[in-house]
Amino acid sequence: MIEIPTHHKKVTDLHPEEGIAPGSALCAGCGGLEGIRLALKELGDNVHISNAAGCFTLLSIYPFTPFKGSWLYTTMAAPVPAAQGVRDALDIKRSQGKLAEEDDFQVMVVAGDGSSADMGLSPTSAAIHRNLDFIYFCYDNEAYGNTGFQLSGSSPYGSRTQTTPVTQAHPAGAERPKKDLFQIWKSQNPSYIATVSPREPIDLSNKFAKAKTLKGPRLFICLSPCPTGWGFDPKDTHTIAKLAVDTGIFPLKEYVDGQVVHTRVPRKRIPVEKYLEHQKRFRHLFEPTRQNDLIQKIQEDVDRYWEHSS
Amino acid sequence: MLRIRLHGRGGQGIKTASQILGTAAFLSGYQAQDFPLYGAERRGAPIIAFSRINSDPILERGPILLPDLLLIADETLLEDAQAAPLCGSDSETVVFVNSAKTPENLKEKFSLPSLPVTCKLTELCLKHLKNGMLRSTALAAAGVRLTGLIPFENLMESVEIELEAMGITGQPLKNNLELAQEIFEKLNPRTIKDREERPLSPTKLMIMEQRDVKDAAPFITATGNMAQRKTGNWRIHRPEIDYGECNHCMICYARCPEGVITMDTEGKPVIDYDHCKGCMICAQECPKHSIKTLWEMDHELEPQ
């Protein structure tokens, strides 16, 4: 048995065993895959994953699975009800003495932002209300990535998607701000909420280590840079993930005991355009003519967020 | 009718190549069809696209099983049993391979049915586009030239139409046109035999039977067996660790999304090339820059 450090300080503290076997059909350089890989390193093998349809459908393709634990595939709206069923069944087995504590599973929902912020929101809200004991891992690539990158409730203002093309009448692309899933969950006062970045493995692992000790609904929002949909070279996944944090666009924070704490505050936030200019989905903000008003609006939204949270 | 099948990898522009081919043929007065075929796979995974060119209306539908011309954008596919780019070809099929190897060398190494036509497209793409991956224009230009049916001006116009539709204009478009011109001038038309159209035979309608729910929603009881699927052949670039420089910081191990970098007993990082998809995150993230980026096929050629 390998001793897992309860508090991580450096990358060599990460659990050396991989929770996900290689060979999946996910894109090379997938930011979400790195997120769930690090999460499972911390959570161990006894995890039941209830997986909503989405990019991560490709994780497990019959007759292959990359997981050591259990995996159940659901429709986009139903991963949480499925998790409820599994949790209930495990609880019944436990109460009948047919399942030892060490054989019990941590029930985890894995879903993309389309499922989390749009289609599956209603049953999720109901499950939080019932205080279902589960972890929710949302890999947020800010669109319906698996079907060719269509707008989701999580697509940010000013981004181009398949269904929000940039036209003369719509120079911004997506014209509505990103849904704040963190706030939506927070309004129901669950046990734990955290945002995590694949570029911050220590922060991510410590948050999972903390969540592991808690019960009830626990949400993780993992910003998942998507080379294919966002339009950048796969090798730059971590560069983009780092810029998202350093520009303040993606704040790393957690909610526990009714308090929101920022786990990493960029000392001096770099301008948002450094993050935007690397990605094809924001290219129209710079070419053929620079749309200063749109870039400025994105910057102001970020500045306002940090003003209000400090 | 000319049946052209294009093979490449996700991200190389194979679908666009088939479109450029189709449009160029259409502009030259032919009827044309072009379409891609791919499943759930993503970047780096084998992709197929098709173009049919004919002077009469094309009634044939579906994938091309017996190609007259094969355009292979990535040499690594020749070794890939799943991609099987040579499937359905015979000694009369004209095979084009993007490769730095000689035709004789390729024929022997991969047991090709005939001597292939080769051209160093990757090198030319690097020269004109500063990117060896974007092979749509290059592959289409090679295809257009080999058919001998399409005049140069129509190739140019087609590249313009298709790339502009994707938002590629200005200098990048100009670079693509220069690339197309160089390839058009480099290659010569081949005699491609017009084959008899094979009549389609009707197949029997399959009656679906009611099956147990367990058959429809099967269980996998093995754990972690995904590793049996090898994704190493997705690689276009190859990361190689310079152990002389490496200080075992293990950043590469922490950053690899596939989890294919492990620590050996001495604490050194080791790359599992059977599964590494070649995203090159490790090379980008290595603080000491001690992971080199090489071409998978032509190690001597250092990409930019």
Layout: helices, strands, pairs:
The complex is a heterodimer of chains A (310) and B (304).
Chain A: H1 31-43, E1 47-52, E2 70-74, H2 79-95, E3 106-112, H3 113-119, H4 121-129, E4 134-140, H5 181-186, E5 192-196, H6 201-212, E6 217-223, H7 227-231, H8 237-246, E7 252-256, E8 259-264, H9 273-276, H10 292-309
Parallel strand pairs in A: 1-2, 1-3, 3-4, 4-6, 5-6
Antiparallel strand pairs in A: 5-7, 7-8
Helix pairs in contact in A: 1-6
Chain B: E1 2-9, H1 14-27, E2 31-37, E3 46-54, E4 69-72, E5 94-98, H2 103-110, E6 117-119, H3 121-129, H4 136-147, H5 152-165, H6 170-186, H7 213-216, E7 237-241, H8 251-255, E8 261-263, E9 269-271, H9 281-285, E10 291-295
Parallel strand pairs in B: 1-4, 4-5, 5-6
Antiparallel strand pairs in B: 1-3, 2-3, 7-10, 8-9
Walkthrough of the structure:
The complex is a heterodimer of chains A (310) and B (304). With 310 residues, chain A is α/β, with parallel strands linked by helices. Chain A has a single domain (19-309), classed as 3-Layer(aba) Sandwich (Rossmann fold). Chain A is built from ten helices and eight strands. In chain A, strand 7 and strand 8 (259-264) form a beta hairpin. In chain A, helix 1 crosses helix 6 (201-212). Chain A starts with 30 loop residues before the first helix and ends with a helix. The relative contact order of chain A is 0.13. Chain B has 304 residues and is of the alpha/beta class. Chain B folds into two domains: 2-186, Pyruvate-ferredoxin oxidoreductase, PFOR, domain III (Pyruvate-ferredoxin Oxidoreductase, domain 3, 3-Layer(aba) Sandwich); 229-295, Alpha-Beta Plaits. Helix content of chain B is 29%, strand content 17%. Chain B has helices spanning 14-27, 103-110, 121-129, 136-147, 152-165, 170-186, 213-216, 251-255, 281-285; strands spanning 2-9, 31-37, 46-54, 69-72, 94-98, 117-119, 237-241, 261-263, 269-271, 291-295. Chain B has a six-stranded mixed β-sheet with strand order 2-3-1-4-5-6, covered by helices on one side. In chain B, helix 1 packs across helix 4 (136-147), helix 3 packs antiparallel against helix 6 and helix 5 runs antiparallel to helix 6 (170-186). The longest helix of chain B is centred in the middle third of the chain and has 17 residues, at 170-186. The interface between A and B is large, with 47 and 45 residues.
